[in-house]
Amino acid sequence: MSSRTVISGGLVITASDEIHADVLIEDGRIAALAVPGTQSWTADRTIDATGKYVIPGGVDAHTHMELPFGGTFASDTFETGTRAAAWGGTTTIVDFAVQSVGHSLREGLDAWHAKAEGNCAIDYGFHMIVSDVNQETLKEMDLLVEEGVTSFKQFMAYPGVFYSDDGQILRAMQRSAENGGLIMMHAENGIAIDVLVEQALARGETDPRYHGEVRKALLEAEATHRAIKLAQVAGAPLYVVHVSAMEAVAELARARDEGLNVFGETCPQYLFLSTDNLAEPDFEGSKYVCSTPLRPREHQAKLWQGLRTNDLQVVSTDHCPFCFTGQKELGRGDFSKIPNGLPGVENRMDLLHQGVVDGHISRRRWIEIACATPARMFGMYPKKGTIAPGADADVVIYDPNAEQVLSVDTHHMNVDYSAYEGKRITGRVETVLSRGELVITEREYTGHAGHGAYTPRSTCQYLN
Length: 464
Known about the structure:
- This protein is α/β, with parallel strands linked by helices.
- The chain contains 13 helices and 18 strands.
- The chain starts with a strand and ends in a 24-residue tail after the last strand.
């Protein structure tokens, strides 16, 4: 059955253009754009976007649905998490499949396919967490790249769980230099941090705020510098995830000034929250425990600056929610046992639009860091991340003037608190299409689990 939808009268915003245009969608793809009123297209459905923005669906390239961590699991399933993403104007996620030590990459990937298949409201892809670098793992990396899993995450943190030493990192980087994969790095000196954790607990410093104090900005900067140098030795590109510290941004900027293929991602929590939240009394600070940690407020300006100068290219969420009751509470009396992660997949597009309202970034830059660049970085462009003939019809009708208050009472993520409780913002998602199908229709959920399709990816399209 052929279907046609026309979106009329809106301001179409992409990373490169802002144009008043009517958009024709045919069989799940963008078929044409035209000057408003110049085409008499016949359609099964017409959506009036007068006074609204028509933007590409968001691409959130860093989520953790159902992730096992610290003896529990992230509280969003692929079903609840992708539904919440759609409510927030995100139409593609790239989640992380996990290799367990002693097991193959394939086992981890198969397990994540099983979790996601038939459950997603929007399209999804996978990165692969590499926890056990050996000859077999390295061979498997080649196979995964061929079948569309083209990025591999390593950890300089979490000794005994995900941690890779410099030799393992170098070997994986050398392999990715050959097979076209992109290494994503959690850059924190986990060995040193563990010493500081032990010392803090011995002094009786057990509250959530000490999570931020032991995971020092200098140890993020040191690890970022080391990852850059290892990538340079391997001749491989590098993507540093969840950059939170101005000192780490400086390392990325220096590498990029040298012409290296080094990229950085930050997250809304680092742009809007701070150590003030970690210090909230009565264990409330545990809601804000994530790694890399929230930093003092003065880091925010440097992160926004990095987004303007393209020393940071992407804003993802690192969505990894744990309920306050029964999950975050595992760390009462010992901050090191608080599950690390924040909910945010539903809030990213809105918070970044607030960044436009506040004058931090332009409208086109909003779309660039939230849609186009993540799609290019992870091999999905122009199928995802733009509004152009041939692209998937992942389209959001966005009301730039609507006001809303972020709250646990109104969000759709499966978690018992909002990291942004009570925050007033301007701008709200009104209608969302995923491959031409209405998932959110005028603030009502009209999608369904199983619509979302697995999306194999090509290699990074953002290299110099």
